[in-house]
Amino acid sequence: MKNKYIDLIEQSFEFPQDEFRVEDGELYFHNIPVMDLIEQYGTPLKITYLPKISSQIQRAKRMFNVAMAKVDYNGDYNYCYCTKSSHFSFVMEEALKNDIHIETSSAFDLNLIESLSEQNIINKEHYIICNGYKKDIYIENISNFINNGWKNTIPVLDNMNEFDQLDAVITEPTKIGIRIAAEEEPKFEFYTSRLGIRYSDILPFYESKIKGNKKFSLKMLHFFINTGMRDNAYYWNELSKCVSVYCDLKALCPELDSLNIGGGFPIKNSLMHDYDYEYMAEEIIAQIKSICQQRNTPEPHIFTEFGSFTVGESGATIYQVMGQKQQNDRERWYMVDSSFMTTLPDTWGIKQRFILLPINKWNDEYQRVFLGGLTCDSQDYYNAEAHANAIFLPTINGSEEPLYIGFFHTGAYQESIAGFGGIQHCLQPAPKHIIIDLDENGEYYTKLFSKEQTYKSMLKILGY
After folding, report:
1. Residue where one domain finishes, among candidates 261, 276, 311
2. Would you call 317 helix, strand, or coil by DSSP?
3. Between the N and C ends of the chain, which has fewer C-beta atoms within 10 Å?
4. Residue span of the structural domain in which 277 resides
5. Which tens digits make up the pLDDT trace of 34-87?
6. All residues at 6 or more sequence positions from 73 whose CB lies less than 8 Å from its CB, including other chains
7. What pLDDT, in 10s, does the model give residues 148-199?
């Protein structure tokens, strides 16, 4: 009878997969024995595997360039990294090895870029796409960049008042963009994005404010859909509307030459993930070209702003199951040595699901369980996977060897949302964080980025 955990996985999915395999009952992640990392660093443990960041960037560049070649597209492709997904220095440094550009969303992003510039990691030739609703300090930092020679800094207007704010402080010729307030799916609580300028206002605004202005030239139209790049009628309809507005603007504004289609490539959150990235890239480019041809409009340069796609699949979070609790006839709880609310806040805040796999005991029998975190909050639990309304993990009855589990592809947003280095719910300490890279021989090596948070650091923040 096949009742081992590895039997369950092999019967349910195509396994092993690119980044996962099992050897002697233990999990390997990108050919790295995760149990070796646990023995060296302990748990809970955050992991960032840097080579995955570069491979994702190169993958998207390859797909979009192939898509352009297939339809003889007369424009360039520019990959931007969306910094809000992860601001860590090691992420930015790895991403910028790949000839990319940057998208920002707040004032401090520009201070971060200044630091990278001082280290010669980024320079004034890079595009800096400045999105978001802009406070005074953000406007000030943008103007400082442009006035100091960052000629490819492009503030994207989120509302019409931002134009006058920028005009008051910028002294140099400036390329700007306009963000379209896209319509959202009917199932949303709101029908129109809070970000951007509505369709009907864009052309009159250009005519009254930007046309003929000697300081500002309209370079870019920006478009983004909350639900991402999905193969459905809603996405294609919104893309078509956006390209049509681009063609209308281009007829009035010869210097307009770029279309920013935002981010939205999903990351793999299940072993059943089947998103067709190549098809989507090819179809997006083909539709943009087709509409432009129908309107006799030159095709725009394409910008994307991939954040989660860039960094999400580089991350993993490892826990030890400390024990189990049978709370009633049907519910068996595995208690982990940290909190989901503090280490994986998206599991609590938006019910995000990640790939969950045991690190060891793959040759043991399995059972259905619920996972409980260490805080006293009733929401500190994890009880389902993306492909099923249940969790199955190896049994730990009477076993002296602890069970370790890993959540994979957790590299985007989790640290910034949780408040890295700050106060954690119920004063649960932030875990150790290690970086993994490959040397010139292709052998992996690790580096400790941050130790587990201490009580002294928390008490200092709290004023003790």
Report:
1. 311
2. strand
3. N
4. 51-311
5. 999 999 999 999 999 999 999 999 999 999 999 999 999 999 999 999 999 999
6. 67, 285, 288, 289, 299
7. 999 999 999 999 999 999 999 999 999 999 999 877 666 656 556 778 898 8
In tens, the pLDDT along 246-257 reads 999 999 999 999
What pLDDT shows up at residue 185? 64
Label the pairing between strands 77-82 and 381-382: unpaired
CA distance 103 to 255: 21
b (16+ CB within 10 A) / e for 271-304: beeeeeeeebbbbbbeebbebbeeeebebbbbbb
199 burial level (CB within 10 Å; 0-12, 13-18, 19+): middle
- Rounded CA-CA distance 309/261 in Å is 14
What's the confidence (pLDDT) of residue 328?
87
254 and 396 both lie in a single domain = no
- DSSP conformational letter for 276: -
* Residue 225 tokens, joined: 């859909």
Domain containing residue 145: CATH number: 3.20.20.10
- Picking from 90, 77, 132, the residue whose alpha carbon sits closest to that of residue 110 is 132
Do 227 and 87 reside in the same domain of the chain? yes
Reported residue count of the chain is 464
Integer Cα distance of 83 and 95 in angstroms: 10
